[in-house]
Amino acid sequence: MSLEEAIGKAKNLIYESLAYDFTYRPCDSNFSNGYFRTNEYVLGYLKKVDLKLSKYVLTVLASGDQAFSLISEGIKNIDTFDVNALSEYIALGLKRAMILKYDYQAFLDNLFLLTDQKVRIDNDEEMAILSDLLPFMESKYRMFWQTLIDYTTKVQKETGNNRNLIHILDKNDVTNFYNYRKMVNFLKNDAHYQRLRENIGKANITFQEANALNLPNTFRGPYDLVLLSNILDYFDFQWGDHWDYKMLKKYEENLAQIIVDNGVVMLEYVFEYESLATIFDNCYPLIDGSKIVASDLETEELIVLPRYATHTSKDAIILQRKKG
Ligand SMILES: C[S@@+](CC[C@H](N)C(=O)[O-])C[C@H]1O[C@@H](n2cnc3c(N)ncnc32)[C@H](O)[C@@H]1O
């Protein structure tokens, strides 16, 4: 999608939100609200993979938190994809600029101010934070955010609606900020964050608008590691009733074309695995909208993540290792 088209679509989102209090939130659209922070325990699942062997990685972009976590762990070659074109402007535009500009504490403070939905900052304060980031962006991203800053300020005045720009664009209003800090590698502590800042300039990170349904259409790889977040939760839109274990096998076979032998695919992030899947005696679908239950899995590993953040439930991942 061109810069002009992305700006036009972003303006629509902003106008509809400020003039009509309307926010449409489909998760697989080519331009809709995006994630400014992950809702996954990325630090937990990256521990399950030997990152020293992961030289070439393909990951969903979303908030950028998966990619930035990988960079903080020293990975230099990362291809990213997303169906939502806005994710590029969020992650590689805004978030990257925050990493370049801020030290650890300032990054946390400003991300909190911009993205915690319980915080309402003054419109001028928000625009000042965003404007100060513009010099740290590549020109395409600078153009996008500068236009949005100007347009939002105008429409906020016209409509008398002072909803914050980032709150309008943000889809993740769930994750508590205090927990978020402990979910990604690069925010573990000051040293990890410094490693990200040192590595980010040296990393080769690309972005493609692509649908995870057929990644070999767009990417050649071969990759040592592929991270798919919980995208498979949305495949029922295409596959409906056919979304079962057989389809997962076909999907894995197709993806295997771009994976090295012994490469790893993080196929699915399962939210609240313990509270849902185990209580319902393994009848609960592991992947939303599918028929796949835990006892179906033959060659995949189901790894439970003891997510410190919620004491009542545990998350899990479905991992597939390609045989050598
Ligand atoms: C599945 S969503 C959920 C948020 C995620 N758990 C995280 O931590 O960021 C993550 C990203 O996947 C993208 N997405 C959804 N369906 C997709 C698809 N079929 N192909 C590519 N990206 C997709 C969304 O646009 C979003 O940016």
Task: Give structural notes.
This protein is an alpha/beta fold and 324 residues long. The chain has helices at residues 3-20, 42-46, 65-72, 86-101, 104-115, 123-133, 139-159, 165-169, 177-180, 190-200, 236-239, 245-256, 273-278; strands at 56-60, 77-82, 204-209, 223-227, 259-270, 301-305, 315-321. The protein has a seven-stranded mixed sheet, with helices on both faces. Helix 3 (65-72) links the parallel strand 1 and strand 2 (77-82). Helix 3 (65-72) crosses helix 10. The mean pLDDT is 92. S-adenosylmethionine is lined by residues 27-28, 34-35, 38-40, 60, 62-63, 81-84, 87, 211-213, 229-231, 234, 269.
Ligand inventory reads:
S-adenosylmethionine
The total count of strands amounts to 7
Strand order of the largest sheet: 3-2-1-4-5-7-6
Question: What is the N-to-C succession of helices and strands?
Answer: HHEHEHHHHHHHEEHHEHEE
Cα separation of the termini: 38 Å
Secondary-structure-derived class = alpha/beta
Q: Which outline best applies? A: globular
Rounded to an integer, what's the Rg over CA atoms?
A: 20 Å
> Helicity level, as a percent range?
40-55%
Contiguous uncertain segments of 5+ residues: none
User: What's the pLDDT, averaged over the residues?
Assistant: 92
Number of helices: 13
Question: Biggest sheet: strands, sense, closure?
Answer: 7 strands, mixed
β-strand percent reads 5-15%
